[in-house]
Amino acid sequence: MKLTIDSGLCSGHGRCYAMAPDVYESDDEGFSDHRDVAREVSAGHEDAAREGAQSCPEGAIDISED
What we know:
The protein is about 20% helix and about 15% strand. It is an alpha+beta fold. It holds the Pfam family Fer4_15. Keywords: 3Fe-4S, Electron transport, Iron, Iron-sulfur, Metal-binding, Transport.
């Protein structure tokens, strides 16, 4: 599984990293870190990644199930 966070849509609400801190991190400005880069979700964290993505009010997180 991979996830990508669209920097054009991310508004820095922080719901993703509040819901799934083992998957998402914030940058110094409160936006989700690692935007615009597809990255692998660590094994065992798939459900948390989905939960964080579903909590995003802008729909800025894309989950790709490989």
